[in-house]
Amino acid sequence: MMAERGIELDHSTVHRWVLHFSPKLLEHFNRRKRQVTRKWHIDETYIKVKGQWMYLYRAIDSNGDTVEFWFSKERDLKAAKRFIRKALARHGRPDRITIDGSQTNRTAIMRCDAEDRLKRGANPITIRSNKYFNNNIEQDHRRIKRRIRSMLGFKSELAAAITLAGIELIHMMRKQQGQFANSVTTTLKQQFVALAA
After folding, report:
1. How far apart are CA 38 and CA 40, in angstroms?
2. How many domains does the chain have?
3. Which of 7, 32, 50, 121 would staple 2 via disulfide (CB 3.0–4.6 Å)?
4. Which domain holds residue 147?
């Protein structure tokens, strides 16, 4: 695209732009993100960084829209609770969460739910645990993994987290999750222009 305009760029320049602008664009997008439904699917997927497996926790709603994501070095109760708290703080309480049978995720949801219920006096979150009910999020992981596969891995945890945030941002924009002034279906270019303004 840049070569068509007579501009020569090295791929490392584009990578530096991604690392610099992804967090800023994601922050602006999250302010314009439309509400998600009250039925969530939660799962984690593996990402390789410097030869070590790390974990991308993800949640989508019943429409397939991205609720939240969290990149973590560990796959433990602490990381799962941090992810659940982030999702609850940004999007409120769901009525139901579907998980794939992970006991860690179940415990994290139950503990975060208990903390949240004490503050709000709400009904408990229903947890469905069945690997076959979670096919929606497994298919959604595939779109993220497709982008990562061609990158030959990540060299640092920070670069991985920022790049994954950029990939998730584009993924949300393709799903038309942003609320923009004209409220009609907008192209990626129009959404970027609105975010940059």
Report:
1. 6
2. 1
3. 7
4. 3-196
In this structure, what CATH number is given to the domain that contains residue 105? 3.30.420.10
Looking at the DSSP assignment, which residues form a beta bridge with residue 47? 54
Give the separation between CA 63 and CA 40, rounded to whole angstroms.
9
In sequence order, the β-bridge partners of residue 42 are: 59
Phi-psi region of 157 (alpha: psi -120 to 50; beta: other; left: phi over 0): alpha
Q: Which of 153, 131, 165 is nearest to 43 (CA)?
A: 131
pLDDT digits (tens, 9 = 90+) for 137-148: 989 999 888 888
Each residue's pLDDT tens digit, 160-181: 999 999 999 999 999 999 887 6
